[in-house]
Amino acid sequence: MSLAVDVTHRFGSFALDAHFVSDGRLTAFFGRSGSGKTSLVNIIAGIVRPDRGRVILDGRPLVDTDQRIFVPRHRRRVGYVFQEGRLFPHLTVRQNLQFGRWFTPRRERHIGLDQVLDLLGIGHLLDRRPGALSGGEKQRIAIGRALLTSPRLLLMDEPLASLDDTRKEDIFPFIERLRDEAEVPIVYVSHSLAEVARLATTVVVIDDGRIVATGPPANVLGRRDLIASHGAGETGALIDAVVAEHDPSFGLTTLRSPAGSLQAPHLDLAVGTPVRVRIRARDVMIATARPEGLSALNVLPGVVTALDKTDEGLVEIGLDCGGVRLAARLTRKSVDALHLAPGRQVYAVVKSVAFDREALVRAPGFAADATAYSGQR
Amino acid sequence: MGHLLDLSPQEWTAVWLSLRVATVAMLASLPVGIVIAYLLARGRFPGKSILNGIVLLPLILPPVVTGYLLLLSFGRKGPIGAFLEQHFGIVFAFRWTGAALACAVMGFPLLVRSIRLSIEAVDRRLEDAAGTLGANPAWVFFFITLPLILPGIIAGMILCFAKAMGEFGATITFVSNIEGETQTLPSAIYTFTQIPGGELGAMRLTLVSIVISMGALVVSELLARRVGQQLWVE
Fold this sequence. Notes:
The complex is a heterodimer of chains A (377) and B (234). Chain A has helices spanning 37-45, 93-102, 113-120, 135-147, 165-181, 193-199, 217-220, 224-227, 332-338; strands spanning 3-11, 14-22, 26-30, 52-57, 60-64, 69-70, 78-81, 153-157, 186-190, 202-207, 210-215, 236-247, 252-257, 260-265, 274-280, 284-287, 298-309, 314-321, 324-331, 345-350, 360-362. Chain A is of the alpha+beta class. Chain A has 2 domains: 3-233, 3-Layer(aba) Sandwich (Rossmann fold), CATH 3.40.50; 237-376, CATH 2.40.50.100. In chain A, α2 (93-102) packs parallel to α4 (135-147), α3 (113-120) packs antiparallel against α4 (135-147) and α4 runs parallel beside α5. The longest helix of chain A has 17 residues, at 165-181. Chain B is mainly alpha-helical and 234 residues long. Chain B is built from 10 helices and no strands. The longest helix of chain B has 34 residues, at 9-42. The interface between A and B is medium-sized, with 29 and 22 residues.
């Protein structure tokens, strides 16, 4: 998959000027509300015609104003899962699901109804009407409906925004399976750092109608200048690791990462499974000597790379631990007491319990055991 | 003069003629009504307010004026009437088809208004969603828009039918009051009131029109409730 976008568009006083290329399996558009994420997705879907520019999907232009190309939305084969579901109220769930499939040429139907019912767990809802469904069920059907058109690209605009946290947890595994098994590239819009860190293989950061960064999540989401200033909440580091061994007697799992080995609460995953760990800056302590007699199990040696004052009078320390970028949030008093400065050799200390469910997710691309996390919720 | 429920042949003729005229008026104006309502609800073109005014005009003008205008344009010597007779052999003047045309014109504003309001109430984001699922604009209209505006269409049809059943002024001005051809229920009642001893006939036809009107109202309620249930409740 390759998606290249280079467009400018004005909506009243808001100007969108976006330029990026992505070949990721799940490209996350990340930015605060009103930054232009949805407008950009609407341009890719063909709901909005841009004033100027190009959208190229796998070498084929969907829009090219210079060449006067504008493929209408019904011929783009781009699936769209809307924030509010938008199921058709006058049709049953089955008819909703089959709606797009009906318009898909027979030889291009790669995805079957049984496959989608199985993936999303919605088989028991087929004869119901949308009015009688919960928010989570509606969203799963909206995803299924878009998938059944066998799209070349699937757009998901904040599909979890209207759901509460429990419902979100119900849907996450489905999106992860979709990313890893369905072989449909996804563009995923979100203003939630946790969602993006969990799902993305490529992150596109959007601010005020412009793209301010593009790249793998570990590079983009660790940058405090990008994340904190865009109202996204707390910063943290993303570490790609592998399950190394299990210790059943203590209920712990050891993960191997470039930064060193990490102990996490037991994970129901086979040895060798890649995982992605998000370590929030507030969960990291700093020691200037290797600590002894400490309850925390994870001690990673590293070098201070940067000191950033935050708005709340705290300092965020950038660390380099064996090539992995890590962040720690400390008080100014601690920074002074420890004489922290760039280049200083330190130890980052992380409690194992910091790896809760939100912080530890299966890495993209590993399809074998999609439901591993559902057991330890 | 006979029993209250025992309709004379002349009265039966008037009842059947009225039903036929109203049904034809309603059905013939429906497709045009949907197109015009769609244009008024969604279209952006110069002269939209003029089109809207022309559609609503029969609601505001005295019916006799509408009937007279129809006579001027659709009569045998009128420009449209002469053209239609010459090229298609269609004659409206002093025929039941003329009565149907007069009823259709009078009921049209009610039909269009009802459908237009329901089109304006449709969530266009559903139509966008159908587009991204591969439906071209025509399919979107038939599979999404049309089913969603069905309650408005039914309501408009009933209003149009009821208006046609009661139309008097435009009909009598345009096609006169010819028994068996253009003498609809209201014209027949009017005729009975003009002749001595006609009260019982007028009364019988009055009862018939009450029954038909109530029946139309009940049917529309039932239909609207059924469609509404399918859409929103459960």
